[in-house]
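Q: Fold this one first, please.
A: Sequence and structure below.
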Amino acid sequence: MLTMPRCSHSQNSSTPVELEMTNVTDWPRENKMSTNLLKTVELVFRRPNVSGELLAHALPDMNRVCDSKLLGVYFRHDFNFSKHVESVVAICNQRLFLSAQLKKQGLRVHALSSVYNAIVLNKTLYALSVCFSYLTEAHKDTLRRVLKRASRMGFTFHG
């Protein structure tokens, strides 16, 4: 039976961080999985104005980071998604260039639309529900510009 690791959700928890980390490392072992501690980092989510002095001490033998990529999404300690938006836009621009090359080679509108949906639109929409409420209007406009550019280039098919 697969069970989830036990973790405290309160910043005022009486459970020591070391015990929580033991729970996190024991869970995969109990479920016949492994944890690569060389790739494991600690990311503490907090309000931007919280002083680092108020944070709990870092776990031993673990790097505390300000941002990290998880399942293709860049998370930052203060929920700023600028790095994620920049990454998505860069990848989408590369994929739009690829689509333009396919168009020059004579790929038809229906096929171009399918390629666009698969490699550009899906990349733009992936995990958007996770970070949308944290995006600034500038972030949203940047993503909209990518989609408008694709439309102007004739990669979207309506009908």
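Q: Good. Now the second chain.
A: Here it is, same layout.
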Amino acid sequence: MTRPLPPAQWIRPQWPAAGHVRALITTRAGGVSGGSFGAGFAGGGMNIGLSSGDEVAAVRANRARLREFLPAEPRWLSQVHGSGVHDADQDAAFPVADAAVSAGAQRVCVVSIADCLPVFFTDPQGRVVGAAHAGWRGLAAGVLQNTAAALRVKLGEAGAELLAYLGPAIGPTAFEVGGEVLAAMRARLPRAEAAFVSRPGGKYLADLFALARQALGQAGIERVFGGGQCTYSDPGRFYSFRRDRITGRHAALIWIERVSRADGMSPV
């Protein structure tokens, strides 16, 4: 059965992934949530966060709507702003992790976001895919490096080339942090200070996109795409925890579509 096309307002990454690799990031549009979760959209907002303060029935309806555009139910995670990576090729209900990887067909890796940075991964041949939830704590803990390592284990190639795509996140003009964030990043990334701008009162503006590029470079990933879409400064399109506190969540999803053995890829 042919699946419908996702709403035009959702993000379909522009990156040189193999044709059978699919990725999608929801925005506020396309759901049924009301009030502050759906303001500005006829028909409601697309909040997928069950613990966001929205009506659970609305969130479940939004998740059911999302499922219409996917080959299978997403492998939802219990995210903790850490560095754990779940193998989505193994059955587990809501594993505690902030990233997921897969080498199988139609296994949908997903992370939920509302200012934290979603990062997609694949290799040039599309044999593996991954998604990571990278706020500053996850970046400082090495979630991107761990995701890259897990993908290379699946490939059986320690030095395999990987590509990455940076989705929307709070931007460098809006993400004010304290000195503890700079210290945590310095401990992980030798050039972290270049991603911080000093502000009065011992505060800094942090650039999550730049920090992610440093972390990916540390993992040997040089081909990085996307980045720059700010959730905080675009309330008409994105939820933002830093801006609104009580807010919705977006889903960032990636998977391998059905492929045949003749393609040299995962079997159906």
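Q: Anything worth noting on the second one?
A: The CA atoms of residues 22 and 255 lie 5 Å apart.
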